């Protein structure tokens, strides 16, 4: 059970009566629960309308501008989760507001650690999907700088920063620059061969860059590597394997 026990909310039942409520969510159903609970239509900053079973609803105020580091990290985590739900559903303006609130929590507490870098990464990913390429590029670059400044940063997190910048270059059809970012990511994850997901994704990204450069042989080899890594990760029935295997066959004219 994932309990947001640090966050106490006032529920306005009517004009004069207020009660206190603590939200408890099952972690395995976290995203689906949020989708069902939240009606993200409020224009009030930090306030979300929550719809309950039976048609009842109330206003839920999410804490922000916390100076205490532990509280700030917890509040930012909640805003990041809400932003991710909005991003996946294409609610980009509302997702932007959520990620900015997450960043505001951490900035208020003077936190510029992995949590802050990941928040910037989340916001940059939203901007990329939204078509705001320049905003995305600036934030992905800042995220990479932060990761590089942190001691003992996990290889997959650092590689993801290079992968994200590389994908932006591909969006701009700057294939040479994209290939360079993916090559750096490949060098970083050499230290994490057990992380099959990031290895598969990086190989697939490199394949796209080489394809854009017209290097079909290299593109096919990278895509083959991505498919085989995905197969080890999730089997031949996995979605990632099927996608990479299909692309490999289209590039090379061969079947895996």
What does this structure look like?
- The protein is an alpha+beta fold.
- Helix content is 63%, strand content 12%.
- It has 10 helices and 5 strands; from the N terminus they run E-E-H-E-E-E-H-H-H-H-H-H-H-H-H.
- Strands 3-4-5 form a 3-stranded antiparallel sheet. The chain has a two-stranded antiparallel sheet with strand order 1-2.
- A hairpin with a 5-residue loop joins strand 4 and strand 5 (57-61).
- Helix 3 (92-108) packs antiparallel against helix 4 (114-130) and helix 5 runs antiparallel to helix 6 (155-171).
- The longest helix is centred in the N-terminal third of the chain and has 20 residues, at 69-88.
H/E order of the elements?
A: EEHEEEHHHHHHHHH
The strand order across the widest sheet is 3-4-5
Largest sheet geometry: 3 strands, antiparallel
- What is the oligomer described by this structure? single chain
End-to-end gap: 42 Å
